[in-house]
Amino acid sequence: MAEINNDDKVSGVTLRETKKDDIDSIYKLCCLAELNESLLNKPHIGFLLAHYSAHPEFKEIFVEHVGKTPFFVVEYNNRILGSTLGYTQEQWKTVRGGLIDAAQKDPLWIPGALEKLEILDPHSIGYSVCEKIVTHPDARGMGVGKMLIEALKQNSNSQFQYSEVVEKVFSGENLLPLENIASQKFHEKVGAVKVARSHRYSYDKSYLGEDGSFVDGIYLLPLGK
Ligand SMILES: CC(C)(COP(=O)(O)OP(=O)(O)OC[C@H]1O[C@@H](n2cnc3c(N)ncnc32)[C@H](O)[C@@H]1OP(=O)(O)O)[C@@H](O)C(=O)NCCC(=O)NCCS
Question: Of 6, 9, 23, 82, whose Cβ has the fewest other Cβ atoms within 10 Å?
Answer without folding.
Answer: 6
